[in-house]
Amino acid sequence: MNLSERIGILRRGFGRGVFPHQLTWVLDLPGRQFIMSAETVAGRLPVKPDAQVLEIGPGSGYYSVEVAKRIPQGRLTLLDIQPAMLEKTADKLRAAGISNFETQPADGGALPFEDASFDAIFMVTVFGEIEAREAFLAEAARVLKPDGVLSITEHHPDPDFEPAEAIGACLQAYGFVPLQKLGWRWAYTLNAAKDGEKAA
Domain spans of the chain? Predict the structure, then answer.
């Protein structure tokens, strides 16, 4: 890898857009738990032990391990556009002794799953990276079960951070109803359900 390529990776890592898999070590730096711990995110997912959960953009798997532990009779599906990122997440899950997961390389605008497949979809510091939001939210509504939940967590210092009010308005515009906001202004989780009237 030459210097120009290294600089490009650093710019993507600390700028807006998809986080490069070459910098996953940054996502595991000490101190992240004080901003948004894995236990906090997992605890905000309203799921039962047998739930089918989809994580969009798992990064290094920082949150994946804790969520998988909370659905021992269920399954965690990890989706990312970077196969190398999924490999790193899978390695972390296996190292933690977790086997109730699968990986799926794909784009969020065309989810390769059947209708009503998941009890919950969650993502952490990923929603701001999605450009084709209408397509993604339509797909999310399709693959969620009727009572499923879309859970979006955002926190600083992510360069793609957006306030809860902006994301809530976007969700409402594309067929979701915000249910609850947990956390505070700069580090929060927004849970939403499908709008039955718009989906009908």
Answer: 51-199
